[in-house]
Design a protein that fits this description.
mainly beta, 5 strands, Pseudouridine synthase, 1 helix
Length: 113
């Protein structure tokens, strides 16, 4: 069932909604920040044009961690600029330059339990 627009007789305002990924931004807020030490590496990553799974796969490969051990809170929009936290069971601190990739960049590196 299709209902008529209430303002059908008025001219439109023009413009576009979300015509480019930069028009839509998502920032994940963690329940708690990295604690500073511990066996898990936390990365806050900004991505665009990649799914969360693609990001997890790329970073898991760069850190030599099985993808199934990557932790993250939900899927973020591929057609947006998003930042989110991912965790990896890694004892060593990585070289941030080695974590750079197409469509994403690491913003923060931390450790936690």
């Amino acid at each position: 069932m299709s209902l008529p627009f209430v303002t059908a007789g008025l001219p439109g305002s023009g413009g576009r909604i979300k015509s480019a990924p930069e028009d839509f931004r998502v920032e994940e807020l963690p329940a708690y920040p990295p604690q500073g030490s511990g066996p898990h590496l936390w990365l806050r990553v900004e991505k665009q044009g990649r799914t969360t799974r693609e990001l997890a796969q790329a970073l898991a490969a760069a850190l030599s961690v099985p993808e199934r051990e990557v932790g993250y809170a939900g899927q973020k929009d591929k057609a947006a600029v998003t930042s989110q936290w991912l965790s990896f069971p890694v004892a060593r601190d990585p070289d941030p330059a080695g974590l750079a990739g197409d469509g994403y960049r690491v913003l923060v590196i931390g450790k936690s339990r």
